[in-house]
Amino acid sequence: MTPKVNIQLLFRQSFVEPKTAAKQFLALDLSYDAIFSLFLASVCASTVLIFGFDTVFYGADARVGLLGSPWQFAAIVAVLTLATAIGIAWIGQKMSGQGSFRLVMALIAWLQVVRLGMQVVSYFTLILPTLLVTFVQFGLIGWSFWIFIAFIDEMHKFDNMMKSALVAFLGTMVGMLGLFFMISLFGIFGGGGNGI
What we know:
This protein has helices at residues 7-16, 18-26, 32-58, 70-94, 101-124, 130-156, 161-186. By secondary structure, the chain is mostly helical. Helix 3 packs parallel to helix 5. The longest helix is centred in the N-terminal third of the chain and has 27 residues, at 32-58.
């Protein structure tokens, strides 16, 4: 039987006690359908928020290149995340970790939700002086990485944040390689037109 979890409490706990939050989230034992539904919903929400904000404050042509189209941006995030999850699961297991791809993907899906909250906060900080905005933005990025590493540490049962940080780094490198491979192989984001 799936345990009941207070989502609001879990969200807040993810910021201050990420390992505890990860343990509670994994206890939900979500199916692949639920995991990917949560992941895709959060990616779509993040994409809408980013492009909506840019359109309102900077105009429709604020973004150019590979990230100039919402579907391209969402596709890049999805491919990068999936490849990173595969890398974290595989490398972690090679280093005596206990996490499977499903568990990694579950926590990354939840991390996307947490980062969505950070994204909203970062936009509110834009009313602050520029120097303070920069400080807050870097702080949020660092906080996000700390949560990410703590999630990996709990999922792989390392009890070693340095080891988890190494797995996070190597897994992210695998994700980048996977993204470049997909771009090169399929030319999804190739040039030759502005696209829609």
